[in-house]
Design goal:
The chain is about 60% helix and about 10% strand. It is an alpha+beta fold and about 190 residues long. Helix 3 packs across helix 5 and helix 3 packs parallel to helix 6. The protein is globular, with a radius of gyration of 18 Å. It starts with a strand and ends in a 12-residue tail after the last helix.
């Protein structure tokens, strides 16, 4: 049985879900961002307990198909930007359509209707947050960050960074309070 979980955006969220499933004696095939595949039949009391425990961690068990699909879109983008070094070989719209088996126009309209922003804006916002993270870590120079985040050049990265933050990457790096958003707030 597949469970779809809202607000699941990081590896710690995966650990929380695994721990709660194990505490309830539920075996699973996998738990990944946004979903868990449980082997066992879930008793109603287990489902209620799981909902309560997940809510304590800021996670929500979903059953509405539209919300589930929006969370799948978010999960695919978060996984792509934050946890994968691979560059997609096609444009984002084709990638999402292929990954989720839906027409991109339907996905884009649904996402915009539910989230109030476009998929593209959501994707770019996450890319900028990842760039901020890489700047704060101070392990890579701007050329390396541009390459890692699949920008065509440092200039392209800088232009997009300034458009979204109002700052140049260099100015952001010099700030003492390197404020970043949590993934849940993006």
């Amino acid at each position: 049985m597949k469970l779809y979980i809202k607000n699941m955006v990081c590896i710690r969220c995966v650990m929380v879900v695994k721990a709660n499933l194990e505490k309830l004696g539920l075996r699973y095939v996998y738990v990944k961002i946004g979903e868990a595949n449980v082997i066992d039949d879930i008793e109603p009391w287990q489902l209620e307990k799981l909902k309560v425990e997940l809510k304590k961690a800021g996670l929500v068990l979903m059953d509405d198909k539209r919300s589930v699909l929006v969370e799948k879109i978010k999960s695919v983008i978060i996984e792509l930007v934050h946890y994968s070094d691979d560059q997609i070989k096609v444009n984002l719209s084709d990638f999402l359509s292929e990954k989720l088996n839906y027409d991109y126009t339907y996905l884009a309209n649904l996402f915009s209707e539910v989230k109030g922003i476009t998929i593209e804006k959501f994707y770019l916002t996450h890319k900028i947050e990842k760039v901020k993270e890489l700047i704060v870590y101070d392990e890579l120079n701007f050329s390396e960050i541009a390459w890692k985040m699949h920008y065509s050049s440092v200039a392209h990265l800088s232009n997009q960074f300034k458009k979204y933050t109002g700052l140049t990457p260099t100015h952001f790096k010099m700030l003492k309070n390197k404020r970043r958003e949590t993934l849940e707030d993006v």
